[in-house]
Amino acid sequence: MMVPLDPSSKPTSQRRIAEGDTVVVYERHDAMRAVAVLPGAVLQNRFGVFRHDDWIGRPFGCKVHSAASAGGGGARGGKGKGGGFVHLLAPTPELWTLVLSHRTQILYLADISLVVSYLELVPGCLVLESGTGSGSLTTSLARAVAPHGRVCTFDFHDQRAASAREDFERNGLTSIITVAVRDIQGQGFPEEHTGAADAVFLDLPQPWLAIPSAGTMLKQDGVLCSFSPCIEQVQRACEAMRSCFTDIRTFEILLRTYEVREGGLKGATTNEESNAVPLAQKKRKLLAAAETLDVKQNSSSVMVRPCSTARGHTGYLTFARLRVHGN
Amino acid sequence: MAAIPREAWEGCSVLLDINDGDRLAFFRLTPAATVKVGNRTCSLQPLVGRPFGSLFSVGPSGLVPCADAPSSRDDTTQDAADGPSQDETRDNRSLVDNNTAQNLSSDDIEAMKRDGVSGDEIVEALIANSSTFGKKTLFSQEKYKLKKQKKYAPKVLLRRPSTRSICETYFKKSPARTGFMRVDALSLLLSMANVGPYSDVLVVDMVGGLVVGAVAERLGGTGYVCSTYLGSAASSIDIIRMYNLSSDMTTRIVQAPLSDLCSLQNSVDVSSGLNDSIQGEAQEPTAVPVENTQPSVPQPTDTAVPDEKTQSPKEQSIDIDIPEPLLDEHINQDGNSSLDSKGDEDGSSIGPKSLKAGKAPSPERMKYWSEHGFSSLIVAAPGHDVESFVADLLPLLSYSAPFAIYHQYLQPLATCMHSLQVSKMALGLQISEPWLREYQVLPSRTHPHMQMNAFGGYILSGIRIHNGDACNGSK
Questions:
Q1: Coil, helix or strand for B63?
Q2: Which of B6, B17, B191 is best to mutate for the A interface (most A CBs within 10 A)?
Q3: Does B379 touch chain A (CB under 8 A)?
Q4: I need a surface site. Which of A53, A134, A221, A321 has the fewest CB within 10 A?
């Protein structure tokens, strides 16, 4: 279960994979997929064929090997023990962000974590979101406000709203997330939420059209966030916020990642050693070889460098607080 | 009951933002609490019952709520934007800095103050008597006005303490105390560790309790925060007092030494079938931990003990070196007296509450965690070599549990990541560094902030995996 809604459903070492569970199949850090566990079903990938029946009863986080009897006939059968493997992980909103099918451009971990923190969400809050998109942020919002809070998310695209609703249902989040089809830019948020929302999140092409409505939804000192890729959108949104919002701040957050490997750096003395070897007597050769080995061992260390590729821009995040009326 | 309290109440912790971030300080709203703004000491009583987000000015009798429109800088900006565009073409070619622009002398200003003229009126008088104000660009006029307002008409904003504002305040005032952890790094830690309802989060917090408080706020009274520490002296988690945690949230913050958690784990592994033995072991945490009584099983834990002992003095020195400099010295005295006053008046309710945080977990809870594992792990030990104890912490997690390790230096995380890769205890390992840029967005004046904090720390994240017999068999 993506977000535990009662203590018995929380993931622990004792919990086993059961029929109907969603597991994240981890092949490599950039190759994962979400799979629903069904009796009799099989998963095929480049590492082999995996039977779901073999997964049921195993703990999350285990390593599973492909079925030996499948694949390339006799030759593969003979090498059954050498079959590929994958890891089965319990789903989390972070893993879901990496594996979900993209129906729209989505927010990623750095933006999502800043949004949840700056909206000051805690269990029990009510959050309004538009648009739903692929549901990447919605799942993290649900985790932040569960078990008693609510996320009301709106999208003006019928099919995307239906697909998102299916995803939330599959992940067991229907008691927290409600999905509605509504054009927030044209109609505003529904009046039933007036003055009830702790936070509002907008990911819309024209957020300035929705900001007055967002203002009427929020409790005093509630927080609004608008996500826009272009600075012109931000300017118009900030202009629309000035009338009833304060503490308006715009951020951009990016994540740089590093790769780690073990290796050695060549020293100047190594060349001298190699040059000296042919000229030395037999005894000196042995000494030289030993010294070379020592040098190599000493120079081996853990080295780290930034990854060459990184996401250069996702969007600007603008946060604002509903102004509190004095006197 | 609302999830977030929207009004200040007596005895609560508040964050006061004086003059748009020029000064930030935490206060507890007790009857005797005061704040010094400029030369004047004001009682905090007018803040009780006011909604968070209220703005106050300093009047003759103390803090006074501001009316809406004139107080807002945003309104000023809007008025400026409405000005004729022709004015915006002015420049500074005719302005000379000869110190004769202001016709009011300092004696005149002092006389106005003595006569009880309000700060806003002083600002208006200064503008009227400035011979160059009319020649300035609108932007320069706005800057001039804001500067005078901060001096003669200071504003005090009543802010609710939250993870966001507490982290930002400490990062601004005393970043070394919280290991130079920026708010976006703390946000990432909480997300990467999947902190959510009913989580049991294992925390190594050597940043004053900032992480413990943030996790407790996210849990909202569900799940537990188990703050563990190395050696026998518990790490300070005083910052959690800044959060207004409910008693339910506070009682779910427990502290236990890492040696106890590891020894219990080992005893379960060795004699999982003997319930009596387990219960006997479980009783240890309730007593004062004594190193000698620990089982002498030849485990890596035992070899780590000398290192932990060596590190203990370092921890203590860290705490000693950085007392809470957040409060000014004068106000610190008030703070002390207010704390005493709080003890006197609300001893029955607040005293026990403060004592509840950081208790040792119950034997049943310890047994549960040794069998089921923790839901996630967060390590914030910016002064330590994390590799030495992360290997002890990971077996305490559930399978498929995420963890996140924060450090201010890159090399300790690289070494730790490499050792985790070699030992195959985890996968999805990733070292990340957040980069956060803030923008000024105003009409025709949009640009990134000229000054930014260029460093927010590094985070190593991953997921613990199951290393079962099947895996060994296949090898």
A1: strand
A2: B191
A3: no
A4: A53
Highest mean pLDDT among A240-244, A268-272, A297-301: A240-244
Claim to verify: residue B38 and residue B108 sit in the same structural domain: yes
Q: In chain A, what are the domain boundaries?
A: 12-69+84-91, 98-255+311-322
Q: Tell whether B221 lies on the interface with A, counting CB pairs under 8 A.
A: yes
| B86 pLDDT above the threshold of 50 | no
Chain A positions touching B371 (Cβ under 8 A) are 13-14
B381 is a domain residue: yes
Contact assignment for A13 to B372 by CB distance below 8 Å: yes
User: Domain spanning A98-255+311-322: which CATH class is it, in words?
Assistant: alpha beta
Q: What is the CATH number of the domain that holds B137?
A: 3.10.330.20
Please name the residue that has the structure tokens 């905090």.
B44
Nearest residue in A to B447, CA atom: A231
CB A129 within 8 A of CB A137: yes
From the CA of A181, how many Å to the nearest CA of chain B? 27
Asked whether the beta carbons of residue B186 and residue A90 sit closer than 8 angstroms, the reply is no
Angstrom distances, CA of residue A96 to CA of B194, B252, B460 = 12, 29, 19
Look up residue A100 and give its DSSP letter. Answer: S
Pick the CATH number of A12-69+84-91 from 3.10.330.20, 3.30.365.10, 3.40.710.10, 3.20.20.210: 3.10.330.20
Cβ distance of A122 and B53 shorter than 8 Å: no
CA distance B421 to A29: 13
Give the domain range for residue B167. Answer: 161-266+354-462
Q: Are B130 and B29 in the same domain?
A: yes
Partner residue opposite A221 with nearest CB, options B51, B72, B217: B51
Sort out which chain B residues have CB atoms less than 8 A from A233's CB and list them. Answer: none
Q: Could you read off the pLDDT of B13-53 as tens digits, one per residue?
A: 999 999 888 889 999 888 999 898 887 789 998 999 989 99
CB contact under 8 A, B163 and A120: yes
Count of the separate structural domains present in chain B: 2
**For A122, which residue in chain B has the nearest alpha carbon?**
B218
Cross-chain residue pair B54–A92, CB shorter than 8 Å: no
| pLDDT for B353 | 39
CA–CA distance, A249 with A228 (Å, rounded to integer): 13
Q: Are residues B107 and B169 in the same domain?
A: no
Structural domain ending residue among the three candidates B139, B159, B179:
B159
Contact across the interface for B418 and A262, Cβ inside 8 Å: yes
Q: Which residues in chain A are contacts of B442 at CB distance < 8 A?
A: 238
- Residue B437 to chain A, least CA–CA distance (Å): 5
Query: Does residue B210 sit within a domain?
Result: yes
Angle CA A39–A40–A46, to nearest 5: 110
Its sign, for the CA torsion B436, B441, B446, B449, is negative
Q: Is the pLDDT of residue B317 over 60?
A: no
The residue type at B291: E
Out of B159, B174, B197, pick the residue that ends a domain: B159
B324 lies in some domain: no
Residue B348, judged by CB atoms within 10 A of its CB (0-12, 13-18, 19+), counts as exposed
Return the beta strands (E) in B200-342 as ranges: 200-205, 224-229, 253-257
CB contact under 8 A, A231 and B437: no
B61 and B189 both lie in a single domain: no
Confidence check: pLDDT of B78 > 60: no
Kindly determine whether residue A113 and residue B184, on different chains, have CB atoms separated by under 8 Å.
Answer: yes
Put simply, whether B452 touches A (Cβ < 8 Å) is no
Asked if the ipTM is above 0.85, the reply is yes
Q: Are B123 and B152 in contact (CB under 8 A)?
A: yes
Q: Please list every residue in chain B whose beta carbon sits closer than 8 Å to the beta carbon of residue A144.
A: 196, 218
